[in-house]
Specification:
about 60% helix, elongated, mainly alpha, about 80 residues
């Protein structure tokens, strides 16, 4: 007979209830993680806004560069 490898988890018995302290600890950890995620989201929003600003500036530079007369100075295979 092949024995199944234990997953490492214990099965809860009917006599193993979560105490108020357990629930409060889980709530505290959850709230801490939520705050971390909020800070991360705020940081990402700032970075995306800055990337959008940089892209707009690059587009403005590209439009100025490609004005009539300037485009003739670029070689056909030259990267923009």
């Amino acid at each position: 007979m092949i024995r199944r490898k234990s997953s490492g988890r214990r099965r809860a018995n009917a006599s193993q209830y979560a105490t108020k302290a357990d629930v409060e600890e889980i709530h505290r950890i959850f709230e801490e993680r939520r705050q971390w995620l909020q800070k991360l989201e705020d940081t990402c929003n700032i970075q995306f806004a800055r990337i959008a600003q940089i892209q707009a500036e690059l587009d403005q530079i590209r439009r100025a560069w490609m004005k009539p007369g300037r485009a003739a100075t670029m070689k056909p295979n030259q990267k923009r």
